[in-house]
């Protein structure tokens, strides 16, 4: 969840179901790793609670995407550097960086899911229909997590 990965700007274009699944997978995997670190590092009850919920979400998204035939992604150098950066932080610095990354990631994913759903050419069928429904549920979760992140960040300031 580095700066490039966290860009909240999603270009409005038609995204195929495969592109959607392959776009979400690496972000879910990275979030899973970040949550596992957060659960071990943070002393902030709100951050810990969010990390627990987010870990459930990431695990579920990864499992569902794999069931739909999406391969796990290889972590790129920017993602690995972000994870190492998180590991080196502690206290409020950790909480601030972790929550800012989760907020940015969920803003991107919310916009990506909305773009996929809004720009599909009709309601899909077959396997595409499964991804369509996953995207609809994910849009809800991504939107909710944006709100949760914003509240936790505001309360910490």
From TrEMBL:
Highest rank taxon of the organism: Bacteria
Q: Which InterPro entries match?
A: DUF4142 (IPR025419), Ferritin-like (IPR012347)
Q: Name one Pfam family in it.
A: DUF4142
Where does the DUF4142 domain start and stop, copy by copy? 34-120
For this protein, the record's Gene3D superfamilies field holds: 1.20.1260.10
Q: What is this protein called?
A: DUF4142 domain-containing protein
User: Which species is this UniProt entry from?
Assistant: Taibaiella soli
What broad taxonomic lineage does this protein's source fall under?
Answer: Bacteria, Pseudomonadati, Bacteroidota, Chitinophagia, Chitinophagales
């Amino acid at each position: 969840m580095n700066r490039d990965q966290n860009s909240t700007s999603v270009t409005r274009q038609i995204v195929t179901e495969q592109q959607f699944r392959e776009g979400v997978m690496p972000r879910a995997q990275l979030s899973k790793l970040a949550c596992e670190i957060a659960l071990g590092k943070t002393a902030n009850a709100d951050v810990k609670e969010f990390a627990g919920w987010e870990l459930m979400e990431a695990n579920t998204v990864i499992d569902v995407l794999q069931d739909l035939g999406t391969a796990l992604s290889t972590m790129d150098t920017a993602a690995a550097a972000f994870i190492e950066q998180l590991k080196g932080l502690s206290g409020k610095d950790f909480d601030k960086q972790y929550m800012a990354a989760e907020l940015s990631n969920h803003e991107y994913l919310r916009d990506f899911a909305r773009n996929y759903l809004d720009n599909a050419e009709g309601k899909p069928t077959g396997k595409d229909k499964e991804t369509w429904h996953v995207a609809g549920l994910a849009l809800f979760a991504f939107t909710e997590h944006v709100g949760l992140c914003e509240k936790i960040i505001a309360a910490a300031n």
